[in-house]
Amino acid sequence: MRLQNKVAIITGAGQGIGAATALKFAREGAIVVVCDINDSAAKDVIAQCREAGAEASAFRVDMSDRDSVDAMVAAVRERHGRIDVLVNNAGITRDARLQKMTIEQFDAVIDVNLRAVFHASQAVVDGMIAQGSGVILNASSVVGIYGNFGQTNYAASKFGVIGFTKTWSRELGPKGIRVNAVAPGFVETPILSTIPDDVLGKMRAQVPLGRLGRPEEVANVYAFLASDEASYINGAVIEVSGGMTL
User: Fold this and answer.
1) What's the confidence (pLDDT) of residue 198?
2) 7-239: CATH superfamily
């Protein structure tokens, strides 16, 4: 198992890609820390992780609240003595065209998708530096590379995450900490649940593989990047998009 006894915090792990990542890490031998603002969803995920044979715990965390993040990280350190992997997966959308987007919509997405990545990474980094190792994985998006109609706030947040990744890989690489990002394309998650079928059909048509991605396919990439198999990968942004941007 590639992540045997690695202590891994996964944010936004109550559903979608985060839940799939938690379960994948569990199957790879990690000690899984499931963080989500939805308490019941997080508990469902840790039950699945435990069924897979992993040690797992859940924390209700508002990732936009630094005190909430700090309390979770302190509790994990107290319980396990170390943090080996942080997956900054939590994210939301509040879509609107530029002329229609409210300040509240803009701020909500920046707070969860960008500011929270800073909060969590800063909260774990001193411990990783002290132990001389660690992996930080950030959820970007193809929208964070190419932009997308109606997603000013989301695109800005995911562009920003790439900036974090490139900067931190330079700062932290010499200290034994690798930082990478994953940029999914269209993935079948609850975030797409409100999209009409005809629009989903058009989305599929943009993908050379002819289908949307599955959360497990993104989770597989996170597991690889978290493992020693990716020991010389640092500062990368890996698209998991079925080739939609070709």
Assistant:
1) 83
2) NAD(P)-binding Rossmann-like Domain (3.40.50.720)
The backbone torsions φ and ψ at residue 235, rounded to the nearest 5 degrees and listed phi first, read 80, 15
Q: Single out the residue of 52, 123, 57, 43 nearest to residue 88, CA to CA.
A: 123
At 121, give phi and psi (nearest 5°): -65, -45
Contacts 24+ apart (CB under 8 A), 145-148: 145/183, 145/237, 145/239, 145/245, 146/245
Per-residue model confidence (pLDDT) at position 246: 77
Domain residue limits, the chain: 7-239
Token pair belonging to 216: 């497990």
Closest CA to 216 of 61, 48, 94, 70: 48
Helix (H) or strand (E) segment spanning residue 155? helix 152-172
Residues classed as catalytic: 154
| pLDDT at 214 (0 to 100) | 96
Q: Which residue has the higher pLDDT, 194 or 114?
A: 114
Quote the distance between the C-alpha of residue 84 and its chain's center: 15
| pLDDT tens, position by position, 95-143 | 999 999 999 999 999 999 999 999 999 999 999 999 999 999 999 999 9
Q: Which residues contact 130 (CB under 8 A, 6 or more apart)?
A: none
Both ends of the chain: CA-CA distance in Å?
Answer: 34
Task: Look up the pTM and report it.
Answer: 0.96
